[in-house]
Amino acid sequence: MIPTITITALLLASSLPVDVATLDGQQLSGDVQSLSTTEIVLTVDGEPRTFALKELKELTPSETSVTTTTAPSAPALRLHDGSVLTPSTISAANQQFVLVDDKLGEMMVPKASVQSLRLALLDSKIASAWEELLQRDTRDDLVVIRKGDALDHVGGVVSTIGETSISVLIDGRAVDLPRQRVFGVIYAGSETKGVEPLCLIELTDGQRLAATEIRLDNDAFVIKTVGENVLTVGASDVSRIDFSLGKIEYLTAMEPVSVTYPVDHPLFLEEVWKYRSGRNSRGKPLTLGSQQYDNGLWMHSGTVLRYRLGRQYRRFHCLMGIDGDLGACMPQVGLEIRGDGRVLFESQVARDDDPRELDLEVADVRELEIEVTSTDTNGICEHLDLVEARLIK
């Protein structure tokens, strides 16, 4: 019987050096003094600071001793909550998976929580075919067989996974397949809604664990996972803890509902003036100050981008400035950001201005508009960067 844990509002723990990133862009280094399911207390420069976990982006132990591996281990169990487990042994019966891992111990995982089980190693020859099968909607479990450099599959209901065989019901007939012949199983349906994960813990051996509860006990994290498992994970075995879990949406990953260009401008050429993600018009990384960025928007004056937010987000963050890759040009542009037609921010931006950080409230905003305006009739070199532009739920 695996015990359960109850986490109080604040649990005292021995200090652990960590690096922390918040959703609003802060980067901090300090020692964890306490950790609960709602907040973390850090000692930063000798002073205690408290952060709500819902405001964290990620936490990284500073003294992780093992380099993270991305080797395609087998078996590999992928869960609907984002967990990826590579235990040393795995079996399934009576709607339950039993996993044994050298670091994590024994785990029980309900079948309804499992998206797929890969029993063989993944290589480049069939990786795309496996990923394509994972994206399919299917009413039956798919038993996948590798044939050379191709994958084939048969539909059925997988009932038992033993050490040497897999039992499948195919067209009403029970069939036992040798386990060594099966590349993997993709399960039908999706997990019923349960407790939302608090964070996703990435281990140095490549495994990922979605946790509904977490606390720090000496130099180890005690977590509760799907199936009410309580596991102890050494801090040195943790490469990263992701608290964002869909709370951040970068504009580079969103498609604007509309894009407006100044097509009547006498110098307009769409190939020159069109907005870009992660690169400027010369195909180079976005540059503000002395730093380059791969994530952000490059916009020419006269451009209006409209994004549908649907009242799903609380804040809009970005770092804005004129791109440094402009040669001798010294432009000045205007930036106006509107929410449902209401002006949230308005300012002029010059080439020699320091990069400026924006933090705007967008709660209850259905549609966000970003417009770069011209301050010169010729509109030459009027480019603006919005780097790390992101929406926070």
Characterize this entry briefly:
Helix content is 3%, strand content 52%. It has 393 residues and is mainly beta. It folds into three domains: 85 residues, Roll (SH3 type barrels), CATH 2.30.30; 111 residues, no CATH class; 144 residues, NPCBM/NEW2 domain (Jelly Rolls), CATH 2.60.120.1060.
Describe it for me?
The protein is mainly β and 393 residues long. It folds into 3 domains: 12-63 and 210-242, SH3 type barrels (Roll), CATH 2.30.30; 76-186, no CATH class; 249-392, NPCBM/NEW2 domain (Jelly Rolls, Sandwich). It is built from 2 helices and 34 strands. It has helices at 127-134, 270-273, and strands at 12-22, 27-35, 39-44, 47-52, 56-61, 76-79, 84-85, 89-93, 96-101, 105-110, 114-118, 141-147, 150-161, 165-170, 173-178, 182-186, 199-203, 208-217, 220-225, 230-234, 238-242, 248-250, 258-260, 276-277, 286-288, 291-293, 296-300, 304-308, 315-321, 332-339, 342-350, 356-361, 367-374, 383-392. The strands form 6 sheets. The chain has a 10-stranded antiparallel β-sheet with strand order 4-3-2-1-5-21-17-18-19-20, with no helix packed on it. Strand 3 (39-44) and strand 4 (47-52) form a beta hairpin. The protein is globular. The model is unreliable at 1-13 (pLDDT under 50).
